[in-house]
Specification:
single chain, 40 residues, mainly alpha, flat
């Protein structure tokens, strides 16, 4: 998988749950992700 393929797949995935992640002003509620090693 190329970097562009990954980006396109991720972009499409985010669209499926965008309503859950954004406020009415299109601000993201989630400001980061934490992995299993607690890296942000």
């Amino acid at each position: 998988m190329t970097k562009d393929d990954f980006f396109n797949l991720l972009t499409e995935e985010v669209k499926t749950y965008k309503n859950f992640l954004e406020t009415a002003n299109n601000e993201w509620i989630v400001k980061g992700f934490i992995d299993v090693d607690k890296n942000i």
